[in-house]
Amino acid sequence: MTAIPIYEASPLKRARATKAEMEERAEFLIAYASEHGPVTVRGLYYQAEVASLPGISKDDKDYAKVQRQVLKLRREGRLSYSDIADATRWMRKPTTHGSVEEALRNTAQFYRKALSSSSKSPSPSSRSPIGICRHANRSGSQPQIKNGRMILPANLTQSRPTSFAT
What we know:
Blueprint: H1 19-36, H2 41-50, H3 60-76, H4 100-110, H5 129-139, E1 144-146, E2 149-151, E3 163-165
């Protein structure tokens, strides 16, 4: 028969947080989020680190501690879901609908005619500063302002005034 090796305890001794330390962290997280919310979990972690809470340092494993504790506090009902900002990243995605009917209802509800597309709205005079700039932008040229006067490029001077006093 062969002898079964006996494993020794690990030389690394990890300190676990006591219940008192866990409660101190929980009270801090709840108080800070209630006062300053909605805050991100990362924001809570930074504040906990700055406040020198026991067991929280600048380390990814300590950020994970705060994440787990915030989740636990939310599930227990001690930390309001509205105090934590979950959707802080801006997302670009198209508006989608469950059906064609829903899309049509939504379109009808939010449709507004643009006032600028109306044939009754006045358009800027071709000799006004706005009209000159619009024509210049369409032609690819840019007017310049010198000494308070608008100077047009040569390709615009045939049909337009050469300068415009402002």
